[in-house]
Design a protein that fits this description.
About 40% of the residues lie in helices and about 20% in strands. It has eight helices and twelve strands. It starts with a strand and ends in a 7-residue tail after the last strand. Bound molecules: calcium ion (CA).
Length: about 230
């Protein structure tokens, strides 16, 4: 079965270039030039991934992303014209899986699409990862439960938690975390990683008040300490 990519881009030339490169990469492509038709198209066509421009006529990329995330976990790559926007977008936690800055090379876009699709495939060896009774991570359903309560995580937070939970107590270096979160090794600032860690920590702490499950090891990295649900 072919893999379907929905391209939402209002600049016709850019949309056409993406179509040509993605089709050459073996993907089936549909292009939309506005945000209003995205939800409908996702419902009818079930794309495997969406390349979503931030600035669009009608609903902008942020609105579209929020709207989709209510009912769909389809991987979304956000495309923005400004690199400074990315930090701001990350802070908003609206659930995009990756970001690309304009101007981009279409080759890079295809590589990124491939990477996100690969990442979104469940790792069959570890579909359900139960580190102990308290934390359960289901890589296929993309869900995580702490003390039996579902965690509402962004895709990046989910991968971060799954990585740390693969070996509780072990220190994962920032580099290792970066490589897992963004497997194309592009430059992401430490501040970006810190902000994801901070957000994940906050969500865990909501279920375990007063406990800090993710320890920062200064100058080295992070580790998960599950501790005792009742302490
Ligand atoms: Ca645009």
């Amino acid at each position: 079965m072919t893999t379907r990519v929905l391209v939402v881009e209002d600049e016709p030339k850019l949309a056409e270039v993406l179509r040509v490169y993605l089709e050459a990469g073996g993907y089936e492509v549909v292009c939309l030039d506005n945000g209003n038709e995205v939800a409908d198209t996702v419902g009818r066509w079930s794309p495997d991934l969406i390349l979503l421009d931030l600035m669009l006529p009608g609903k902008d990329g942020l609105d579209v992303c929020r709207e989709l995330r209510v009912s769909s976990a389809v991987p979304i790559i956000m495309v923005t014209a400004r690199v400074e926007e990315i930090d701001r977008l990350l802070g908003l936690e609206f659930g995009a899986d990756d970001y690309i800055c304009k101007p981009y090379s279409p080759r890079e876009v295809v590589a990124r699409v491939k990477a996100v699709l690969r990442r979104s495939q469940p790792e069959s060896s570890a579909l359900v990862q139960a580190t102990d009774d308290s934390l359960q991570i289901d890589q296929e359903a993309y869900t995580a439960h702490l003390d039996g309560v579902g965690l509402d995580l962004t895709p990046v937070e989910f991968r971060l938690l799954a990585l740390l939970a693969s070996a509780p107590g072990r220190i994962f270096s920032r580099d290792r975390v970066l490589a897992r979160l963004y497997d194309d090794h592009r430059v992401v600032t430490d501040r970006t990683v810190d902000s994801h860690v901070k957000n994940l920590r906050r969500k865990l702490e909501a279920l375990r008040p007063g406990q800090d499950l993710i320890k920062s090891v200064y100058g080295v990295g992070y580790r998960l300490e599950l501790g005792d649900p009742d302490s």
